Amino acid sequence: MAGFTPGDVSSPDAPARTAAAAAALTFGVLSMRNRILGAIGVIWGSGALLNWVRGEGPHGSGAYAAGYSAGMIFGVLLFFVGGYYLVTGGASKDR
Fold it and tell me: What is the pTM of this model?
C-alpha cells in the first residue's frame, strides 16, 4: 500500500473506524440528552412533591382524591428516575 497514511479514508478498515466514531458520537449525544431530560424530571418531580406537601389535600369526590394520589406517586417517580438519569446519564455498564 504505497502512500497509505493512518487517516486515509480509502483504507480497508475505514468503514469500521467510521462506524465506531459514529457510535461514540451517538452515545455522547444520547448521554447528554438523558442528563437534560433527567434534570427536567427532577424539576417537575420536585414541583409535584412540593405541591403535594404544601397542599391541603383533595376536596370533593373520591375520583379527585385518587387523581391527587396518582399525581403524588408520579411526582415521586419523576424525581427519582430523573435523578438517576441526571447523575448517570443513563449509561449502562456494558458500553
Answer: 0.63
